[in-house]
Write a structure and sequence with these properties.
By secondary structure, the protein is of the alpha+beta class. The protein contains 6 helices and 10 strands; from the N terminus they run H-E-E-E-E-H-H-E-E-E-E-E-E-H-H-H. The longest helix has 28 residues, at about 1-30. The protein is globular.
């Protein structure tokens, strides 16, 4: 019995070591630090529920001056979600090079996910192209939590869904929508790990809790705001 227990411990330690390496690889796939171009600053943060997870984001500056912003959430947690997240990022970055319109790109991405992932898995995604010169933001929201825009006068707006999650039906079509970002506006992409974080009594933070944090720290830098959001989630969950 002792020998079996020792073998079990050794196997678990080996698995833990492999997961830590997988975590390092996963984090290396995501942007780091703050991206600054002209009058905009962009920061991203992720904190997996397990060692690895299925949430992801990307910031892809283009040669024409536009910036691609994307954030998504693979259904489930752990290694299966992390593997599908890596597949999606690879496909996304390949399709971006073809200079496709947002709706067409997301439709192509959906086909790839349908063909190469288990039927039980799906991915919510928001994909946007920002034009710094005009402030125009063209986006597709495929079942992801509606990103928030806090206008400089304090109003909140939401970028609602324009299609269903990826990986459900291969023939799904998506539409794009547009809005405009002005000086002083704050754009926030987030996953449900923020708004569904529960306190000990089971009460989620909800979108209202996130808005409260954004309102309180809207004057600060994006990296500082991200830190405050994570701190608020941890405080709420205790």
């Amino acid at each position: 019995v002792n020998l079996l227990m020792l073998l079990e411990v050794a196997e678990r330690l080996s698995l833990k070591g492999e997961l830590e390496v997988a975590r390092e690889i996963q984090l290396a796939l995501l942007p780091r630090g703050t991206y600054t171009a002209g009058d905009i600053d962009i920061s991203g943060f992720t904190k997996p529920a397990n060692t690895v997870g299925g949430d992801f984001y990307d910031v892809l500056p283009q040669s024409d001056g536009t910036i691609i912003l994307t954030l998504g959430d693979v259904a489930g947690k752990g290694s299966p979600a992390a593997l599908l997240m890596a597949l999606l990022l690879a496909a996304l970055r390949t399709l971006v090079e073809e200079r496709m319109e947002p709706a067409a790109l997301v439709a192509r991405l959906n086909i790839q996910i349908c063909r190469h992932s288990p039927a039980s898995r799906f991915i919510t995604l928001v994909y946007a192209i920002y034009e710094p010169a005009s402030g125009r933001l063209t986006y597709v929201n495929a079942g992801q939590n509606p990103p928030l825009i806090r206008r400089r006068d304090g109003r909140f707006e939401r970028l609602h869904g324009t299609g269903i999650a990826l990986g459900l039906f291969e023939e799904t079509h998506y539409t794009a929508a547009e809005t405009r970002l002005d000086p002083g506006d704050l754009l926030v992409f987030y996953s449900d790990g923020i708004t569904e974080a529960e306190d000990p009594s089971g009460q989620p933070l909800e979108e209202s809790g996130l808005e409260l944090v954004l309102e309180r720290h809207a004057h600060r830098s994006p990296s500082a705001i991200g830190t405050e959001v994570l701190a608020a989630v941890q405080a709420h969950a205790r």
